[in-house]
Amino acid sequence: MSKNNGSESEVPSNVSLAKHIRRLSNRERLKQFLSLFKREDSVLIFIVADPDSMASAFAVKRLLSRRVSEVTIVHPNQIKRLNNIAMRDILKIPLQTMRSVKRDEYTKFILLDSQPPHRPEFANINFDAVIDHHPLTEGWTAPFIDVREEYGANCTMLAEYLKSAKIKPAAALATAMFYGIKVDTHNFTQKATPADISCFQHLFKRINKYWLNKIERSDIRRAELKYFRAAFINLKVRKNRIYVHLGRVTNPDILVVVADFLTHVHDIGWVIVSGQTGEKLVVIFRCDGYKKNAGKLAERVFGPYGPAGGHKESARAEVSLKNLPAKIAIGFDTQQLMKLFTKHLG
Ligand SMILES: [Mn+2]
Hints:
The protein has about 350 residues and is an alpha/beta fold. Helix content is about 40%, strand content about 20%. The protein has two domains: about 5-215, inorganic pyrophosphatase (n-terminal core) (Alpha-Beta Complex); about 225-345, Diaminopimelate Epimerase, Chain A, domain 1 (Roll). The chain has helices spanning about 15-25, 25-35, 50-65, 80-90, 155-165, 170-185, 195-205, 210-215, 225-235, 255-260, 295-300, 325-330, 335-345, and strands at about 40-45, 70-75, 95, 110, 130, 145, 235-240, 240-250, 270-275, 280-285, 310, 315-320. The strands form two sheets. A six-stranded parallel sheet has the order 3-2-1-4-5-6. A six-stranded mixed sheet has the order 7-8-9-10-12-11, sandwiched between helices. Helix 3 (about 50-65) runs parallel beside helix 5 (about 155-165). The protein binds manganese (II) ion. Manganese (II) ion (MN) binds near residues 133, 153 and 154.
């Protein structure tokens, strides 16, 4: 199965295997996947923890629950986002760090929502199955490769597996997959297939909306409320634009939360929020996108000093304060932030 046929001998084997598995019906694909496992197998699932990958792992654990002796989910990354911590805890997704698990106690290895070259931690693992929706990478192979990059969410693929296995997900699993699809498709404003939409619709009647609300809203640490006070005290409005520098922040994620909050203000076209972590100035850009381009503005203003850019409606710059002109960098505040923009925005 994993061998190329003659005509494709130039093509790496993972490409033709992925092609082969893509052509199968959902039922055939499920059958092939399940045929990898025996009752006595202990299965280790690897993910880079985010909502889509956690939901995918949760689904595979359910799929294999009565078919193998054990399923453990591990991740190499630290889970920092509060929404993701809330998701793990509220839905009781059993996750362990990669370091806490002895790999030789397991007989089968699965990688979900990622591919071996994506992380150095995955490079020397012989995966039995890889199920992912990122563009197919080269230089690796596995007995089972299901990579469909057009899918908005990886857990949509797993929802198809569950459906073919006639498994109706309980509320926690349904909520996990529902949230995973929402996050990875940015509420269907980015890459999404009809399969993502139909799966989303199908899951809707099984989710717990209270859990979902709590997960979606949990994005502020109690200790971070002080940054809102700083924002209200320091913000300046000029020509429908809000500017604010929040000073030192322990985690730049709070800049995004404050910026997103300020976009709710009526008649405001631009929101520019900055903060300092270490010796770096992080600047978050938000605009309504109408005849505006946040990514281009970020590049124009901060490009000369460090990495800056993004999309039409949202962008980010992270520059070393040392790189800014001294008269701006010293005692950087909201006024200085505004000064940087007047040249470009008037
Ligand atoms: Mn994903």
